[in-house]
Design brief:
This protein has five helices and twelve strands. By secondary structure, it is of the alpha+beta class. The radius of gyration is 17 Å and the shape is globular.
């Protein structure tokens, strides 16, 4: 990778996408990303921004399991689903989540279990044929915010109000513990290819500039 890819401007978020089937095609029969493949990708990518050897990076986790670099100003967030891994890197607090498209057993029942009553009612208004898609859109948006905040989904997912309609602007409605959260975070749906559902949450009052990178390839810049 060249130096240009590792320059991170103010107000920027770089989102890297790794396909384990391309990185290690003989890793497993399923092609799913394993722990070594994922963290090898993470360390190699972060090391390029910091100028240190990948193995020398000190990565710690908080009580909710959110990873962070010790003694570095760089922020990052990690998500993986099936064979894909997304890594968001920024100087701002950031969260990313991805989900591979799939058929759900009962999206409405899942929403009633994990989402707020208001969010479940919103999903109920979505036509049946679009409900799986809308659920995954809402899930990725919520989890991206919670990852950015550095807290787990357990006990928080149903307290975070976010619109689920994919064809409408994302609206963060706030939380009981922080009604002002919508003023400080921006949520963006990402097009990472591979038909992935993907969302990014960034702590900023202005819309960030998002640069999407495919691992080891020159990729396009997409303004947020």
């Amino acid at each position: 990778m060249n130096d240009r890819r590792r320059e991170l401007g103010s107000g920027e978020v770089h989102v890297w996408v790794m396909d384990a089937a391309e990185r290690r095609p003989d890793a497993s029969a399923s092609g799913n990303a394993d722990h070594a493949t994922i963290w090898g990708f993470v360390r190699e990518t972060l090391a390029g921004y910091i100028g240190k050897a990948p193995d020398s990076l000190c990565i710690v986790k908080n009580e909710w399991g959110k990873p962070a670099l010790r003694d570095e100003v760089l922020e990052f967030s990690l998500s993986h689903s099936d064979r894909f891994t997304a890594l968001a890197v920024s100087h701002m607090r950031v969260g990313v989540d991805i989900e591979v498209p799939r058929q759900l057993s009962d999206a409405l029942a899942l929403a009633r279990r994990f989402f707020s009553a208001e969010d479940a009612k919103e999903l109920e208004r979505v036509p049946d044929v679009q409900r799986d898609y809308a659920f995954l859109v809402s899930w990725t948006r919520k989890e991206a915010v919670l990852k950015g905040l550095g807290i787990g989904i357990s006990g928080h997912l149903n307290q975070l109000g976010i619109t689920c309609a994919a064809d409408q602007p994302v609206s963060l409605l706030g939380t009981p513990w922080n009604p002002e959260i919508a003023k400080h975070w921006r949520i963006v749906d990402l097009d990472l290819g591979h038909e992935l559902h993907a969302a990014l949450a960034v702590e900023t009052t202005a819309m960030p500039r998002i640069v999407i990178r495919q691992e080891a390839t020159a990729a396009d810049d997409r303004p947020g």
